[in-house]
Specification:
Elements: E1 3-7, H1 12-23, E2 27-32, H2 40-46, E3 51-54, H3 60-70, E4 74-77, H4 84-89, H5 91-113, E5 121-127, H6 150-169, E6 172-178, E7 181-182, H7 191-203, E8 210-212, E9 218-219, E10 222-223, H8 224-235, E11 242-245, E12 251-252, H9 253-263, E13 273-275, H10 293-299, H11 307-327
Parallel strand pairs: 1-2, 1-4, 2-3, 4-5, 5-6, 6-11, 7-10, 8-13
Antiparallel strand pairs: 9-12
The chain binds ligand F7E.
Length: 328
């Protein structure tokens, strides 16, 4: 039986990946932070049989202990501080977790595996935020990185370190440069879920206004359930490499509003939406759109859910959730 260890198990991607690996018969270990993590029960209910280990990316001793306990064949590093605006408010913490956390985990793997690094494969969750002020459109694996946030800078560190451990020690280490990926499990601070949750509440008469930042921002939004497939496929290859994972189609926040409000039968959404400068970022990323041909050609990966289907799925899930909440 294959064993996998996942950091960031409480997040959207951690849950989808754990479900995927469970269906493939893996024994799964998830690292969970804090002495009383509120998501503990959610993870256990979503992935029955998972073993949760108390560990923190900033504490290398806890990582070595977790590796010793799990003896994993595959390690997926999905743990990070991932909300871009937060990284301007807490840049040191973001660096400790999102950048130095990768170093801690890779060094812990070396300490645990000793001379036999071939017993483990490593996946690093890199991000399209690394492209920042983009140097070309669309972006592929060799596009110059020009991050525009402390989060993006931290991800660049983790990305290059993963490549460095592959080149220095021969570790089977792959970095997936994932463009935005969403689902009903997305946190409500991210723009897709913020919109679908508010649209559901507006449709049910529970909220009147939705306040957003830059409506012209464009993103290449895909479905998280599709993207975790690419993570797993990367670790099944003979050769470790880096891959862009994206849909290749970009939409604006306005497009997102069009689809979400349309799903509840509201055409004139302008009266429900306010733009507020407080949600603007010190530096915005404008033209993210991914070229995932390498993932398609090498991994045989392609997205199965369109932007339109994704947003409608999220609105429907939020309608259901809000109806249940209103009964409580
Ligand atoms: O923003 C604009 C905002 O916060 C998307 C993370 O998973 O993907 C994610 O990062 C866009 C930005 O995601 C609001 O200015 C407008 O242009 O949903 P987001 P993100 O920053 O792209 C990458 C790939 C990651 O790696 C990250 O970890 O939407 N926007 N108005 C807004 N965004 C938010 N959050 N809230 C607004 O009110």
């Amino acid at each position: 039986m294959k064993r996998a260890l996942i950091t960031g198990i409480t997040g959207q991607d951690g849950l989808y990946l754990a479900e995927l690996l469970a269906a493939k018969g893996y024994e799964i270990f998830g690292l969970i932070r804090g002495q009383d993590n509120p998501k503990y029960d959610l993870v256990r209910a979503t992935v029955p049989g998972i073993t949760l280990l108390k560990s923190d990316l900033t504490d290398i001793s806890s990582l070595v202990r977790a590796l010793n306990r799990a003896q994993p064949h595959e390690v997926y590093n999905l743990g990070a501080i991932s909300f871009v605006p937060y990284s301007w408010e807490n840049p040191v913490l973001t660096t400790d977790v999102t950048a130095k956390g990768v170093m801690n985990l890779l060094e812990a793997i070396r300490m645990w595996a000793g001379n036999d690094l071939s017993r483990v494969r490593f996946y690093q969750a890199s991000s399209s935020e690394m492209f920042g002020e983009v140097r070309e459109v669309p972006q592929n694996e060799s596009t110059l990185l020009w991050p525009r946030s402390p989060y993006g800078v931290a991800k660049v560190f983790g990305h290059h370190l993963t490549i460095n451990y592959r080149e220095s020690y021969g570790l089977h280490a792959s970095s997936g440069i994932l463009f935005n990926h969403e689902s009903p499990r997305r946190g409500p601070e991210f723009v897709t879920r913020k919109v679908t949750q508010a649209v559901a509440r507006i449709a049910l008469g529970q909220q009147k206004l939705l306040t957003l930042g830059n409506l012209e921002a464009r993103r290449d939004w895909g479905f998280a359930g599709d993207f975790v497939q690419a993570m797993w496929l990367m670790l099944q290859q003979d050769e470790a490499q880096d891959f862009v994972v994206a849909t290749g189609v970009a939409h604006s926040v306005r497009d997102l509003l069009d689809v979400a409000f349309d799903e509840v039968g509201i055409d004139d959404w302008e009266s429900h939406v306010r733009q507020d400068d407080r949600y603007l970022r010190p530096a915005e990323v404008h033209h993210l759109i991914g070229d995932a041909r390498k993932a398609r050609d090498t991994l045989g990966w392609q997205p199965t859910v369109t932007f339109d289907e994704l947003i409608r799925m999220m609105v429907q899930a939020d309608l259901k959730e809000q109806r249940v909440l209103s009964l409580v």
